[in-house]
Amino acid sequence: MSSTTPQLGEPLMQIRNLDKSFGGVKAVDNVTMDLRAGIVTTLVGPNGAGKTTFFNLITGNLARDGGEVTWLGRDIAGIKPHRIARAGVMRTYQDLRLFDGMTVWENVLNATEYGALPLPMSSSARAERRDRIERVLERTGLADKRDTRALDLAYAERKFLSMARIMATRARLWLLDEPASGLDPNSYERFLTILREDVAGGVTVCIIEHNLDIVIGISDRIAFLDRGKLLADGDPQSVLNDPELARIYFGDRE
Ligand SMILES: Nc1ncnc2c1ncn2[C@@H]1O[C@H](COP(=O)(O)OP(=O)(O)OP(=O)(O)O)[C@@H](O)[C@H]1O
């Protein structure tokens, strides 16, 4: 897939009338939204709202029932997840999906092989990639753990390894599924710093998050899903101050 260079605020990914049902459950119901260059969009909503299913649909992990998803103007229907990743759309998973028997270094290296890199690589490209991984390990606090197996890392280190895998690629869109859940305050600050730096460097982020402090701390825009439907999509204050959405979010609906 080729790539063009959208300017700040232009749509990178356009999602139109996206649908997915599991049996009788409409997990994603006619969702239309844009993910715009350089913008942090937070997906919020109660458990079972369809947030992870939405990610699975736009990364090619699940086949949609209907609707359209374009990346840099091209329809990505039927394209395999690894090819969508290579085109610049990378994700994390709630359950992280690290390679537990591989070291930190090997986990990150593996991700760069699925990221938006031209293959095969010249020796200078390999050296550049090595430097990039070094820098990412420094920023995520994993430099001293490079030879440690993922299995032997602490909880927060595993979360950062899943971030490092994305950071080391040249992905332009990061889809993060609860990346900060359960982090201690120091780790959380490190996470926010990384996110802010990389967004300033041009990365676009869509993040699923339940913690409202985090949502307020990072969002340019909030998309609110409930029972598969996109109920709101706008600036953080207007979404968070909507009493009806608060009722749904906090479980006090009629
Ligand atoms: N593979 C599947 N098979 C059947 N039903 C599914 C499947 N995946 C999701 N669902 C259902 O689709 C709906 C949306 O689930 P999804 O996991 O996308 O919600 P979510 O907003 O990510 O929830 P949470 O915040 O709890 O992670 C739920 O009713 C869920 O039970």
TrEMBL record:
One of its GO terms (cellular component) is plasma membrane. One of its GO terms (molecular function) is ATP binding. Pfam families: ABC_tran. PROSITE patterns: ABC_TRANSPORTER_2. Transmembrane segments: none annotated. It comes from the Bacteria. One of its GO terms (biological process) is L-valine import across plasma membrane. Keywords: ATP-binding, Nucleotide-binding, Transport. This is ATP-binding cassette domain-containing protein. It comes from Pseudooceanicola pacificus.
